[in-house]
DNA sequence: ACCTGAACACCGTTCAAGT
DNA sequence: ACCTGAACACCGTTCAAGT
């Protein structure tokens, strides 16, 4: 029977408001009370600690880190998917809040791609997460940011919807394509080697000269530049008047 | 102790070449021997039976359907992920083999988007699968098909790589965005209702008039048309000469 | 209200053993 | 070579019970 014992971990038991209270007069609350915010922070820490794809985040790992039971976590968070979505949005939010102030709409749209790729570099698991569900906060945030810039470009109605949908799809697709690639732990040399192998793999798949050409081109580019080139291409398409 | 008993399921035991043989003279092989092909077919059947996201495919469900043990399946297939990739490619392959013969490159590129969206309509789980891994056969197939058409358009080198990367990313992103949307079980009315709800949800998220505008536009469009519009926009961008 | 922890119903993968 | 099935090391979620 342990009462008001102080664990050497992150938690104090049977204590409140920073003051030790007699166990009989207070209910059993932790001083560092759980909250959705604290849980999301722990989730991000777990995801960041492991390289790439996000499989590291597990309810049980969360339990050990927060020194609590599953029920406590489920009291603040409805589901693990919700938690993943919250983690992704929390990481993306600050990057995106800086964007609206960009002077030129086209630059702001390029900044969207840059923000996402830089977030992936720091938190590789975001790549997989963003393509998981189209209604999650982070994706809607991307949509909205793009939409606002398109409006500044003078687009309205169907044209705005088409342009917005195209840019959003492109950005998410880039993430899907490059997100699972070489991780942040790779140096430039490892990166080149990875892409080299990939290019050769492609080339071997069939002797097609077209594929070989493209594969060898890809080897030279880095993800971010590739993505920015794509944004520029789409911006040219937006600027061009529909032919029909 | 059962020998050469005929199960009423899909399998016969201790029999071979359609002829019942004495158990003592033959080893214990099944007449409908397992093969990667048979396993992939079963996987597709399981995935198709369940609506949407592909969580239905499970080793244990595969075991019951094929009336076998886990070891038997792992003898033909290295991992469940490989199986998912094989299932997706088997479904996509026939759709894509028809495309190369399209007369006009631009039409062929539009046909790529159409092929993918029609595959998703018939097999909703493909949406999630395609965004899972960038090196899976189905994705490489998409890449190659697009690459070949871009070559027919006269693109080479860096321009081909940028255009190919952009189109592929866009198509995969569309899939990520719309793949998890209303399932094939929805009628047109349900669809409208779903998108209506989505538009309102977006609008509520903040009072931003830009977002409301775009959301209400999206409500009118269907996935395929949206995707084709995007392809056209990108094709205009490809046709336009780079400004720098 | 907030938390505990056992219980439930699952997963994918491995591997010694059989024929 | 091909298959069996037990065992292993996990999952997310629920819920009666505690304070």
Automatic annotation (TrEMBL), chains A, B:
Gene3D superfamilies: Homeodomain-like, Tetracycline Repressor, domain 2
Membrane-crossing residue ranges in chain numbering: none
The protein's name in its UniProt record: TetR/AcrR family transcriptional regulator
Coiled-coil positions: none
Species: Lysinimonas soli
């Amino acid at each position: 029977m342990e009462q008001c014992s102080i664990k050497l971990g992150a938690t104090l038991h049977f204590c409140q408001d920073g003051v030790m209270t007699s166990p009989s007069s207070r209910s059993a609350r932790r001083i560092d009370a759980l909250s959705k915010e604290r849980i999301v922070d722990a989730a991000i820490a777990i995801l960041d600690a492991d390289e790439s794809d996000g499989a590291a985040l597990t309810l049980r790992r969360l339990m050990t880190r927060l020194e609590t039971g599953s029920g406590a976590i489920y009291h603040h968070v409805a589901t693990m998917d919700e938690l993943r979505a919250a983690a992704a949005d929390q990481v993306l939010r600050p990057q995106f809040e800086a964007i609206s102030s960009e002077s030129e709409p086209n630059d702001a749209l390029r900044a969207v791609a840059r923000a996402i790729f830089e977030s992936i570099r720091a938190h590789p698991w975001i790549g997989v997460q963003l393509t998981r569900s189209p209604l999650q906060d982070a994706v809607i945030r991307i949509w909205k940011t793009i939409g606002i810039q398109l409006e500044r470009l003078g687009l309205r109605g169907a044209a705005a919807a088409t342009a917005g949908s195209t840019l959003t799809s492109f950005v998410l697709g880039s993430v899907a394509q490059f997100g699972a690639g070489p991780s942040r732990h790779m140096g430039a040399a490892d990166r080149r080697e990875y892409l080299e192998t990939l290019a050769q793999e492609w080339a071997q798949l069939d002797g097609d000269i077209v594929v070989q050409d493209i594969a060898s081109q890809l080897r030279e580019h880095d993800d971010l530049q590739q993505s920015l080139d794509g944004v520029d291409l789409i911006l040219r398409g937006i600027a061009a008047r529909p032919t029909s």
